Amino acid sequence: MTTLIEPESALAPPEIAPDEQQIALFLDFDGTLVEIAPSPEDVKLDRRVAPALETLRGKLDGALALVSGRPIAFLDAMLAPHAFDIAGLHGAQIRLGGELRAQSDAPDSMHEALRDLVRFANSHVGIIVEDKRVSVALHWRLAPSLQDEALALMRSTAAKMGPGVRLQEGKAVAELVPASASKGDAIAWLMATPTYAGRRPVFIGDDITDEDGFKTVNAMGGLSVRIGADRESHALLRLASPTALRHILLEAAENGHLTAANFARTDQD
Q1: What residues form DSSP beta bridges with 128?
Q2: 145 exposure class (CB count in 10 Å sphere: 0-12, 13-18, 19+)
Q3: Phi-psi domain of 232 (left: phi exceeds 0; alpha: psi -120 through 50; beta: other)
Q4: Measuring CA to CA, which of 51, 106, 216, 252 is 20 to 30 A from 61?
Q5: How distant, in Å, are the alpha carbons of 67, 76, 87, 190, 248 from that of 172?
Q6: Which helix (DSSP H) or strand (DSSP E) does residue 57 occupy?
């Protein structure tokens, strides 16, 4: 169960500001700030990105957050010494202003599911189990021929676990997460807090796991941006790659100016 502390402005969500300079920036991590890697621990973050995000956070008066399937602790380690607002584990964890404001509890059935997935991985070369404590992910990027078998296992496991768990499918990965957790709900909650309220939300992601966030941001009159053009999406704009996004962020940090219009530049890679 996720318990959220009600933000001060939650009862009366403000109008989205018409001035596009007043944006709130939400960023996925894998496939967005970093390239997808063969295994979860192999990702590499350009050393210039975290300082650039720190600069942009200042220019946005604090309205910048990561919204990722990764745990907060992992993202903190990647972005150290900077500590940002984060919705981790698909929204199962939310940290705002240095304070943990939400934390889902893993159902007891998650432990049994983890054992089953580890057994499957031990008997299939290339399958990786990622235990995030609150959630658990099964990766088959190194064993693409096992996709159907891995997905079938995850779907049957989710069905056994019942309504308290949601199966989140992504690129060569499927994850069992608390049903109450979603990137869209996390963004909506953050947008109702004083730091983010009244701004135009911009959310950038790359995967099926980000579609809920895209829909939420679109409904708020914001801007949704998908990295890559490999599938249909609710995102309103596309960028070619994490490299293209990195160019935009680094340039904006250097210029000290970031608006929604920056992300319409699709000519960079």
Answers
A1: 139
A2: exposed
A3: beta
A4: 216
A5: 19, 24, 22, 29, 27
A6: helix 49-59
104-159, pLDDT tens digit by residue? 877 788 989 999 999 999 999 999 999 988 889 999 999 999 999 999 999 999 99
- pTM to 2 decimals? 0.85
Residue 88 forms beta bridges with which residues?
A: 93
Between CA 76 and CA 101 the distance in angstroms is 16
Catalytic residue, candidates 28, 85, 185, 207: 28
For the chain, give the longest Cα–Cα distance. Answer: 56
- Tokens 């078998």 — which residue? 149
- Mind giving me the DSSP string for 78-112? HHTT---EEEEGGGTEEEETTEEEEEPPPPTHHHH
28 an active-site residue?
A: yes
For the cut 50, the answer to whether the pLDDT of residue 1 exceeds it is no
Residue 75 has which token pair? Answer: 């993202």
Integer Cα distance of 96 and 61 in angstroms: 14
Q: Which of 176, 155, 174 is nearest to 164 (CA)?
A: 176
Q: Report the alpha-carbon distance of residue 52 to residue 54 in Å, rounded.
A: 5
227 touches 197 (CB < 8 A): no
Residue the block writes with tokens 């088959």: 140
**DSSP string over 227-251:** E-SSS--S-SEEES-HHHHHHHHHH
Query: What does residue 63 show for φ and ψ, rounded to 5 degrees?
Result: -85, 65
Domains of the chain: 23-104+181-264 (3.40.50.1000), 109-178 (3.30.70.1020)
